[in-house]
Amino acid sequence: MSDLRNRVALVTGAARGQGRSHAVRLAEAGANIIALDICADIDTADYGLGTEEDLAETEAQIRDTGRQVVATRADTRDQAALEQAVADGVAELGRLDIVVANAGILTYGKDRPAARFRDAIEVNLIGTWNTLEASVPHIVAGGRGGAVVITGSTNGTSGKASEVSAGARGYTASKHGLVGLMRSYALALGSESIRVSMVSPTGVNTPMVSLGGESSMAQRVQEVPWDMSNVLPVPLIEASDVSAAVAWLVSDEARYVTGVNLAVDAGCALK
User: Fold this and answer.
1) Phi then psi for 99, rounded to 5 degrees?
2) Which of 29, 51, 169, 215 would be a feasible disulfide site paired with 108, CB 3.0-4.6 Å?
3) What is the rounded CA–CA span in Å between residue 132 and residue 119?
4) Is 171 annotated as catalytic?
5) 3-class SS at 4?
6) pTM score above 0.70
7) Which regions span the lipid bilayer (predicted)?
């Protein structure tokens, strides 16, 4: 396992799903964690988002590893609140070395198309921008270098399923935008020894995918083969599969890896 002892990692969307998995995996590798989540629903989402209880469970699992954790409610769309939450976490834990910009939403509902599109862009793209703007200065100030990983998607390099709804188009557009954002930060921060990359999974077995009834991605996997069609014989991967890639990307084992969009997609992008 990657050795992240004496480092501090920030993870957004940490209450459950991929975010919880990433936070716990990095803690198991030795990192102390700043765990952030909105802990509230967004009304255009077809499923309930993480709760305060979910975030408390993430906090408990991190503490079970023996690592320190600062768990805070924060909406990545609110730049001022996010900056304060990050600053408070850094003040308590003493430093910041790693950022995992993971918070995101995906909806397939067809009502309120303009709101669904905007929410996808604001959470997935602008929220990631806000996260990096709030956190990267702390890594720079440490003078030790560091690593940033952005959660992308197979939809960041294709248009699969984007015609289904405005929310899905917003998701696809936001994930395409994150590829450019990742590359621009990688170029800008290389001289500071800060590596910036992306992990792009296929469908992952998380609440974002499994909840939402007829609007869920899991349902679409069954109904629309071209939506999430993997080459390997698995319909959905597990969050832990993505966390393994994240842990490698932020570790010294990947010390010369930057500007990379790493697919963890069971071959989905091949189709």
Assistant:
1) -130, 130
2) 215
3) 19
4) yes
5) coil
6) yes
7) none
